[in-house]
Design goal:
- The chain is of the alpha+beta class.
- 29% of the residues lie in helices and 28% in strands.
- The protein has a single domain (2-33, 91-251), classed as START domain (Alpha-D-Glucose-1,6-Bisphosphate, Chain A, domain 4), CATH 3.30.530.
- α1 crosses α5 (208-232) and α1 (14-31) runs parallel beside α7 (242-259).
- It is globular and about 50 Å long.
Length: 268
């Protein structure tokens, strides 16, 4: 099992990020859908749990072409679909994804306004405790802290787009960017941090360590690419309301259903 805590510092406010991440999620879902694979939105609706209110989503990610060859070789038919449930009670978010019984990935997110990644235990990990069906662990000892720098972290050439480079992008609406200073995370205003605590477990004997490491690397790549896009799409989401986003999500759901069975599998 791998426990990673990712800290992503963003040049926006916490309130702006709520709209920005929903907009970017809708757009990136379309980017990664086609050729029989991609995202299927089953539910996207408000929920209430006692005093807690938020948005519940249930999605299926069809990912057969994106998993390691060794997994595809031994996986039964249909086992490579990832099922994701999410409870978004902003600024807190819980996502639970699983592939049948072999694999689970759970991540908790907290968005903190004014933070620059300095909070040591933002999601209040217990020093020892039980998480779902997993044995008692010392979570803080096992946790790896990874600070993602959207401007300076290296990305693969296949993921690079000039128009999605924070070191080149300037927002006409807000005046933000480009993020050219090496220590921009310490000085940029406005600022907020996404703290993402990710638990990854793959339970197939013999390949567990290899696959968990692959998944952790993939998660970091996805977070980096997503937040680079989020920043470079500032002029697209800035000024949108939550209702604008809900309308966009509904249209995106319809677009995904049509696009999933068209064209080629996206090369992302």
């Amino acid at each position: 099992m791998i426990i990673n805590e990712y800290r992503i510092i963003n040049n926006c406010t916490q309130e702006e990020y709520q709209v920005a991440q929903l907009y970017a999620t809708a757009q990136s879902s379309k980017e990664n859908t086609g050729g029989g694979e991609g995202v299927e939105v089953i539910k996207n609706e408000p929920y209430e749990k006692g005093e807690e209110k938020g948005q519940y989503t249930y999605k299926i990610f069809r990912l057969a072409s994106r998993v390691p060859a060794i997994v595809k070789a031994i996986a039964p038919a249909g086992a490579l679909d990832l099922y994701e449930e999410a409870w978004n009670a902003y600024p807190y978010l819980l996502k639970n994804g699983y592939m049948k019984e072999a694999f689970s990935i759970v991540y908790e997110t907290l968005h903190v306004d004014g933070s620059r990644g300095e909070i040591e235990n933002a999601l209040n990990i217990k020093k020892e405790g039980k998480y779902m069906y997993i044995f008692v662990l010392s979570y803080l000892k096992k946790r790896n802290v990874i600070i993602i720098d959207i401007a300076n972290d290296k990305i693969e050439s296949k993921n690079y787009k000039e128009e999605e480079d924070p070191k080149l992008y300037h927002s006409e609406k807000t005046g933000r960017g480009p993020l050219t200073e090496p220590d921009w995370q310490k000085t940029v205003e406005p600022v907020m941090t996404c703290y993402k605590l990710v638990y990854i477990e793959f339970k197939w004997f013999g390949i567990q360590t290899k696959v968990e490491s692959f998944l952790a690397s993939t998660v970091q790549t996805l977070f980096t690419k997503f937040h680079r896009q989020l920043f470079c799409w500032t002029d697209k989401w800035y000024g949108m309301s939550i209702q604008d986003i809900r309308d966009l999500e509904e249209q995106t759901k319809n677009d995904l259903n049509a696009k999933r069975n068209e064209g080629d599998i996206p090369d992302n």
